[in-house]
Write a structure and sequence with these properties.
The protein is an alpha/beta fold. About 40% of the residues lie in helices and about 20% in strands. Strands 1, 2, 3, 4, 5, 6, 7, 8, 9 and 10 form a ten-stranded mixed beta sheet that branches. α2 packs across α3, α4 runs antiparallel to α5 and α5 packs antiparallel against α6. The two termini are about 30 Å apart. The relative contact order is 0.15.
Length: about 350
């Protein structure tokens, strides 16, 4: 049976009197982080015997943590404890707060509050790693700029640390891939039409509407690239619907996601952490799909070059788009294992 543990988080309450949980078996826990009028669930699954915990920051803004319990991340549960965390205003999170309380800064504080909860329940000697995908890459970067000391390492996967320049990066990469696919004779009509649409968007320039159009186009190209065998589909997985339904209410999750996503639209013209990336000095691995048209890999190169760690790695998945953990499962899993084992 699933163990449900309710934890109230505060920076002034001391937790030293609590007995720590036994981590010798397989973990199947749900913790609730209560911080600044929000209650956010963290689903912990996997092997806690070595006290290695990998915290997953989902995409969005307004995504859902349990969408990530598939592919490489679920496979990693055999070796490590994986923490699937619903961010403030996302998934099954709840609370009594206003829209102004949904900011990257406060959401980063939430993650650091999660760290306190994990250490309180499982012990101060946890070995914590942080992985952020898509929007989670932006949030994870903000967390580390606030406090990187709790973490042994940082893994950014197709992350959005620079939303200001993302539109230009997208347009450039769309046109590159369209020309490449046309020259190879793959779905010529599809790519010709897409190229025309992107050039029209480029001419109009950035707007929330055009940013949304590029995002939709980026996701829509993945099936086409899969059909033409450009993307690696030998071990591709999709969201496990039954597992997702078990952990989360689709209705509640959808309402939460629409609220946080709409409230953070302003970030697409203001958020750029690139000048601050030199402050991140913990071991870091930047992982990207070559055919990601949502957040092109040129942004990954930018992150890798700018990050301040002297122990950093760049991994490009040649058969993946926006989610290499679901396209190239085995390689992704092995890259993460190698990184964690080197820095645990």
């Amino acid at each position: 049976m699933k163990k449900i543990t309710f934890i109230i988080v505060s920076f002034v309450i001391l937790f030293s009197a609590c007995e720590k949980d036994d981590l010798s078996g397989t973990l199947d826990d749900v913790l609730y982080v209560r911080y600044k009028n929000a209650e956010m669930p963290a689903y912990i699954h996997g092997n806690g015997s070595e006290k290695i915990f990998l915290i997953i920051l989902h995409g969005g803004p307004g995504g859902k943590a349990m969408e990530y319990r598939v592919g490489a991340l679920k496979d990693l549960e055999e070796r490590y404890a994986i923490v699937y965390f619903d961010q403030r205003g996302s998934g099954m999170s709840s609370g009594n707060y206003s829209k102004k309380d949904i900011t990257p800064e406060l959401m980063a504080e939430d993650v650091l509050a999660l760290v306190k909860v994990l250490k309180f329940k499982y012990g101060n000697d946890l070995k914590l790693f942080l992985l952020g995908h898509s929007w989670g890459g932006a949030l994870g970067t903000r967390v580390l700029l606030m406090d990187q000391s709790p973490f042994k390492g940082w893994i950014e996967v197709d992350g959005g640390h620079n939303l200001v320049d993302m539109f230009d990066y997208q347009v450039t990469r769309f046109l590159e891939v369209a020309d490449e696919q046309i020259s190879e004779g793959n779905s010529v009509d599809f790519w010709t039409d897409l190229k025309s649409d992107v050039n029209e968007i480029k001419e109009e320039g950035y707007s929330d509407e055009n940013g949304g159009k590029l995002n939709e186009l980026g996701h829509s190209t993945e099936e086409r690239l899969m059909d033409d065998h450009v993307l690696d589909d030998k071990d591709k997985v999709s969201v496990d619907f039954l597992n997702y339904l078990y952990e989360e209410s689709i209705i509640i999750s959808s309402v939460s996601s629409s609220v946080v996503n709409g409230n953070l639209n302003y970030l697409w013209t203001t958020l750029d952490y690139t000048p601050q990336l030199n402050q991140i000095t913990i071991p870091s691995m930047i992982m990207w799909g070559e055919y990601d048209l949502v957040i092109p890999y040129s942004m990954g190169v930018e992150a890798y070059n700018a990050i301040g760690s002297t122990d950093k790695y760049w991994v490009l998945f040649h058969g993946s788009a926006h989610s290499p953990m679901m396209n190239e499962v085995k390689q992704f899993e092995q890259e993460v294992i190698t990184f964690i084992e080197a820095h645990k």
